[in-house]
Predict the structure.
Amino acid sequence: MVSDAPGWRDRVVDRSIARSTESLKARGLGPATRILEAAIALSTESSGASFSIQQVVEKADVALKTFYRHFGSKDALLLAMLEESIAESVGVIAESALQQSDPVEQLRVIITEPIMRAEEGKAGYELSVAREHFRLLELFPDEIERAVAPYVDLVESAIIRCAESGRLRSVDAHQEADLINLLVLSTFHRLCLKALKDPPAVAAEQCWDFCFRALRPSVVAVSSEKSKRGVRSASPTRGLPSSPAKR
């Protein structure tokens, strides 16, 4: 399931059309992109979102009215930064996951790689995203839901592939993906904010182990399901430990 909700670029287009009579095709998205890149650079340099709108327009070399035509407020810009950060990360993670042929390994990559990104060189920008995420969530819940939708969709698709292969159990793939997103997001933020002592590699594997055990079918559940279908089985599902024999 892929979200068809408009992204930040579409909202910039709508906002520009509403506030200006100039043709968007004539102006292009160049100024909006420059503003976004300037904000990302400033947040990386300052390890946070303490930059001002004036600093952004100066770095982007645009007029103040151009900023307001495209974004309207600093929070609108921060939402665009968050959305762009997630979209970029999801593209990289999806590419990395596709290098694995095993659907379970694909899911493992999708869950662990976002957490591992907390130790990359973009610490300042990631810290800015972490600090602003929950504040923006309270103010703009629908926009934040749209921003994180690509990652939730990626997790959901991977869970469905695992379930179809019989390797993992899924009751509601979308709900499970949403819960995994919350776990990954919380762990990522805690690492960025130095609120978690474990290194990213350890935290990532802990999250994966928890998710794997939550989705792995149990012997009891498999046996019960087979009984309901009237299927007799001498042993549990292949790959799971055998139950001890009755004396």
